[in-house]
Amino acid sequence: MPTPTIALVTGAGRGIGRAVAHRLSTEGARVALTARSRDQLDETAAGCDGPTLVLPDDITDPEAPDRLFAGVEREWGSVEVLVANAGAGVSARVDRTTDADWQRMLDVNLTAPFRCVRRAIPAMREAGYGRIVVMASVAGKHGSPYIAAYTASKHGVLGLVRSAAAELATTGVTVNAICPGYVDTPMTDATVAGIVDKTGRSADEARAIIANKQPTGRLVTPEEVADTVWLCVTTPSITGQSINIDGGAVQS
Q1: 203 and 96: one domain?
Q2: Contact, 113 vs 160, CB < 8 A?
Q3: 143 and 205 housed in the same domain
Q4: Global pTM value
């Protein structure tokens, strides 16, 4: 199996994306990093062991994937590992979910990964090797109150991954989704803040409520998610899968 040397990670400025970038770099890959904040990307790059390419961009811009892939191709060559990690969440009752909220969730969580996957495939297919990992969520496997738009977008991600994997099964290109539960990231910090605001509980109490939604009683670490991404990168027979990493909350 080829050793991956060129990777692109979206949403690489913090949280899971930063942990994935660091893991790939530790394993010897050159890692291109993209997110909206250059400052955060620079912090991620500073923690990488090997070469990095910092490419600030808004992944929801329809032209962003072409810019990003072209930038990597100019500097290093074709992307061999794509980790489509950028994402966002919103919380509201279904009847209070606006069209704008709905569209934003689809744009960042589903359409942007689709465009990146579409852009990555031709070179990977031609090379006979590629690894595509899309960050989904356990919300892609079951419904929960107040996150209908987010949940719908993540269900869509699983459909994208499964279909792409089926198309590419004989080409040497694998496509998988990672489905984290609650991870100790800034996104979870925002969820904690929302609970505090709505209930008056302390931040520690709110964080305990979230942690206890997982049978292990703790938040998943970004590094654990990065380990799961690396498993997908190094195992050719894992494709078309949606791998839970949620402390046993969703057994499937």
Answers
A1: no
A2: yes
A3: no
A4: 0.94
Q: Could you read off the pLDDT of 31-57 as tens digits, one per residue?
A: 999 999 999 999 999 999 999 999 999
Domain contains 103: yes
**Quick check: is 1 in a domain?**
no
Which residue of the set 129, 146, 150, 182 is catalytic?
A: 150
Q: Which domain holds residue 103?
A: 6-183+220-245
Locate the DSSP E strands across 140-231: 173-180
Cα torsion at 108, 118, 13, 54 (round to 10°)?
A: -140
Both tokens of 12, joined, read: 């690489």
Q: Are residues 47 and 140 in the same domain?
A: yes
Domain count, the chain: 2
The whole-number pLDDT of residue 4 equals 65
d(C-alpha 140, C-alpha 152), whole Å? 7
Residue 150 bears catalytic tag: yes
pLDDT band (50, 70, 90) for residue 1 = low
The separation between CA 139 and the C-alpha centre of its own chain, rounded to angstroms, equals 13
